[in-house]
Amino acid sequence: MDIKDEWNDFFETSTEQEQQVMKLFLGSLKTKREKDQMTHIASLLNFKTTRINDHTLEMEMPNSPLLDNSIGILHGGLTATLLDTAMGTMASLVPGNKRGAVTVELKVDYLTPGVGELFICRAEVVHNGRQLVRMDGKVRNEHGTLIASASGTFFKLAE
Amino acid sequence: MDIKDEWNDFFETSTEQEQQVMKLFLGSLKTKREKDQMTHIASLLNFKTTRINDHTLEMEMPNSPLLDNSIGILHGGLTATLLDTAMGTMASLVPGNKRGAVTVELKVDYLTPGVGELFICRAEVVHNGRQLVRMDGKVRNEHGTLIASASGTFFKLAE
Amino acid sequence: MDIKDEWNDFFETSTEQEQQVMKLFLGSLKTKREKDQMTHIASLLNFKTTRINDHTLEMEMPNSPLLDNSIGILHGGLTATLLDTAMGTMASLVPGNKRGAVTVELKVDYLTPGVGELFICRAEVVHNGRQLVRMDGKVRNEHGTLIASASGTFFKLAE
Amino acid sequence: MDIKDEWNDFFETSTEQEQQVMKLFLGSLKTKREKDQMTHIASLLNFKTTRINDHTLEMEMPNSPLLDNSIGILHGGLTATLLDTAMGTMASLVPGNKRGAVTVELKVDYLTPGVGELFICRAEVVHNGRQLVRMDGKVRNEHGTLIASASGTFFKLAE
């Protein structure tokens, strides 16, 4: 049985919640088809980036069943995924950095339970060194509640 | 147009790589249907857990296009997701802990590029305190190459 | 030979730099005698605290030969000592905390070489939880140059 | 009044505990005089180093009143000082590293109260990269009780 038939079989017995997740999966495939450079995980988590200024950007992640941990709130690993992506994206955009940056280390402090409709990560350059970019990141929900605070070190790739 | 028709339309024009990802999505939905307590992200990333002993477990994550970062290697956020899940699962299983544990903070050191077929996280209890469980985690590939090393603090939920 | 004679012998052959350090040692003993609750290390490093507001304090440490690392700049361990002391002091002063707080974990990012006459640490409460106080700390010199940035978790002692 | 007279005056009224601290101060000055490259803080804390193998060393710190925090146990900042010094010393000794290494970041987990006669820090190379050395450190007392666990990143100085 090919993948198309398997999908159609699955649909026949699907619950409403499963159909909601299938919509998310389909949306992510469509986004990824349009923006080929985007990663699968960024399209799956529906990341949207806004550049704020020279050393700051914001990345949004709308809440969805995909983000739940075992007690129904934002999964700490996905909080870290949002932080790492936002901080790494900003780190690769600092002046003088031509080829991007890779994560050396990431430290995340989980402060309050991740609840809400939209999670917004603000990533800011703390220090732009010769080889290392030192970053700061905060995750808040749409009400401004601080959910997580992070720091990270990124290594500039040589030209 | 309903979700089923949208899916079928998308199939008509899908590439081989897109079909591979659709298989992963379908597999994750089937797994989640069988194991209702599993999170979507754990079924999507295909986590499998093996208990090693009283204070250690291993969690595996097979490589797939979903794990790629923007330069085609294991995404640092998903490395963190594997680590947080494995360490948090082990932290919630320590003797005397009845209601699970939540992540207080997580520190991940990225040591070598995440390449390989299978990523294996070993999570170990460093100290089981009255309220806090202190954990250690290592991610290796199938050849034993150390990819990431982490520490984390977890708070025991009261009964 | 008793300690007094040993000291007097040492003085006879002491260099100017050694006499500078002896002055620091004597000053620290005098401070400690006046303020019995102060720790030896705080009096040795000449810590001075200013409360800024409900959730912030500043702690100063004047530069001296005692602070040098092997390449003649501020020792990273003493940067950490200033941060831990300032953050821990502020953590033990949060409303509702009656018996102080102990350090659970401390993360220090060293950003620029520690040079200057005076090092000023600003410690701020990020989140005051039921059991844990989450802190942020920054060390700057007298010109405002950011030398180190830190985060820490502190556990409130039960009454 | 010169520093010698000031010292002698202080002696006249000194308590037994003060004389114990003066002995430590004098010992540290004598050690520093013999080993000029040693830092003041290393001689004050009486650090002794043993090389274990290619990628491991141990550094000892005997307990003394100087190490006490405000509740009479090992000060977290001095635990960090021992860790940073041991890990940084080992990082600067890795093969191919000609000019030493500076601390990029340090994370310390405080696990149990620091009590005992002697604190022993074992510092181990986790990964020796082209520019960065990733280190691991553990502090135990003379009974082998694990007091603190740490990780750190060090940057190799260019030739």
TrEMBL record, chains A, B, C, D:
The keyword Hydrolase applies. The lineage of its organism: Bacteria, Bacillati, Bacillota, Bacilli, Bacillales. This is Thioesterase domain-containing protein. SUPFAM superfamilies: Thioesterase/thiol ester dehydrase-isomerase. Pfam families: 4HBT. Keywords: Hydrolase. InterPro entries: ACOT13, HotDog_dom_sf, PAAI_dom, Thioestr_dom. Belongs to the thioesterase PaaI family. It comes from Fictibacillus phosphorivorans. One of its GO terms (molecular function) is fatty acyl-CoA hydrolase activity. Residues 72-147 form the Thioesterase domain. The keyword Hydrolase applies. PANTHER family: ACYL-COENZYME A THIOESTERASE 13, THIOESTERASE SUPERFAMILY MEMBER-RELATED.
